Amino acid sequence: MAKHTLFGRMTLAASVMAAGLILGGNAHAQFAGTPDPATFRDTSMLKPPAGQKVAIVEFVDLECPACRAANPIVQKAAAQYHVPIVRYDFPLQMHIWSKEAAVFARYLQDKVNPNLADQYRNDVFQQQPAINSKDDWNGYTRRWMQQHGQTMPFVSDPTGEELRKVMADYHVGERLNVTRTPTIIVVTQNKWQIVSGSESGSNDVNRIFSIVEGALRQSGPATAMVKPAAAKAHK
């Protein structure tokens, strides 16, 4: 009886695997571009940057564990398919230090070097589990600046300019009706598809590869190369 059950399970598993391979082949590189009215409202910002046919739009919180897990996957997809990332800061109110971190990243982006700002964001995600307070974040950021040959500013945002930019991103997310992070969307000139952030569908970030590939197949290659993760759009 046990052998029969084991054989039955093996047969069932083989059948499921075979079906999965068939479905996977059919589902490969699909970009449905189907709106999700239960999730989003004003979608006017869901467009790629000028000169691009496909982009990855993301709303992220540097203190969000799910954003930390998604970050290397999104970065890999952008690099693999040579599409830009349009990033919006969406610091959640429940998080202790995410707004300060987003403001500091914006300071690096605007006043120091955009590439250094991208590196800072990636490194903060990596260090995230060890940052449990604003003091932890401040100490880590001071060490990070020293390690990268930078001088820590006495005040990184004396006029509140960078905070206003972060909050402008946040308000874009409110218009879209972002309710969770990360919210990740693959966009073309006239379509968009949610990768993560849906209220009713799948939120598996690993789908980004097939969705981006499908979007590129529908739209054709980008007409201008933009370094992945370097594009930043504000509406």
Automatic annotation (TrEMBL):
Keywords: Signal
Keyword Signal: yes
Keyword Amino-acid biosynthesis found: no
Gene3D superfamilies to which the protein is assigned, alphabetical: Glutaredoxin
Residues covered by the Thioredoxin-like fold domain: 53-186
Signal peptide from the UniProt entry: 1-29
Protein name: Thioredoxin-like fold domain-containing protein
Transmembrane residue ranges: none
